[in-house]
Design goal:
Elements (H helix, E strand, L loop, with lengths): L1 E6 L2 E3 L5 E9 L7 E6 L6 E6 L5 E3 L7 E6 L4 E6 L8 E7 L13 E2 L3 E5 L2
């Protein structure tokens, strides 16, 4: 089993920045790709960004150029740097880990964190 614990959410004004962290523990040797998803009220959970064990990344079009995903394998932690935040970025953000090298969708993520709320409002 793998446990994921997110931190770093909160309330920020439009145009501001936040950095989310996700610390993994347990059977981390089984983890390959990691990702960040988000879910806004009344909407489906959507991929924000993902990163493979080799460091390849992909992003949702809506966050390209504003968000950066990174991972520190020595610390078993993945980060999401979010800049130029907008009200439409408001959601619960979830960290996810996959045993697959390049998971194609959220069904291929095996472990999930409990989520952290990000609210962008003036």
């Amino acid at each position: 089993q793998v446990q994921l614990v997110e931190s770093g959410g909160g309330l920020v004004q439009p145009g501001g920045s936040l950095r989310l962290s996700c610390a993994a523990s347990g059977s981390i040797f089984s983890i390959n790709a990691m990702g960040w998803y988000r879910q806004a009220p009344g909407k489906q959970r959507e991929l924000v960004a993902a990163i493979t064990s080799g460091g390849s990344t992909n992003y949702a079009d809506s966050v390209k150029g504003r968000f950066t995903i990174s991972r520190d394998n020595a610390k078993n932690t993945v980060y999401l740097q979010m800049n130029i935040l907008q009200p439409e970025d408001t959601a619960v953000y979830y960290c996810a880990a996959s045993r697959a090298g390049t998971p194609r969708n959220k069904l291929e993520y095996d472990y999930w964190g409990q989520g952290t709320q990000v609210t962008v409002s003036s």
